[in-house]
Specification:
extended; mainly alpha; disordered N terminus; about 130 residues
């Protein structure tokens, strides 16, 4: 938060949250923040960002390993063929043909289901709601 120009440097020096970056949490924030903990997602990103970790979580693919030339060609073909659909949000339940294919694979495993009973989940936040 910006400090108003009319606040003198001597006034700022008397505020522990400004003068001492090592000030305790309760000196820097409202008391209602005492019980707050760091986000699990933030911890996941911290681990996934380490160079020795290859993570498929959190939308963080190893970009250096992607065949960008090949992907560029595939994306160009997709946009040329189905750009009006490919660049738009889809149905909340997902792509109908993919749901049909999923039920076909499920049938091979002895699981009977109708495509309308499936919902494709592409975003982590949406998956968490179903757990």
């Amino acid at each position: 938060m910006p400090v108003p120009a009319e606040v003198s440097s001597s006034a700022l020096a008397s505020c522990p949250e400004v003068s001492d970056p090592r000030a305790s949490r309760t000196e820097r924030f409202a008391t209602r923040t005492d019980g707050m903990a760091a986000s699990e997602i933030r911890a996941l990103f911290a681990v996934a960002s380490r160079p020795e970790v290859v993570s498929l979580a959190g939308g963080m693919p190893n970009l250096a390993a992607l065949p960008l030339d090949s992907l560029a060609g595939e994306v160009a073909q997709l946009v040329a063929k189905d750009g009006q659909v490919a660049l738009q949000y889809g149905s909340a339940q997902g792509v109908p043909r993919l749901r049909e294919q999923i039920t076909e694979v499920m049938a091979l495993e002895g699981i009977r289901a109708h495509p309308s009973a499936l919902t494709q989940l592409a975003a982590e936040g949406r998956r968490a709601k179903f757990l």
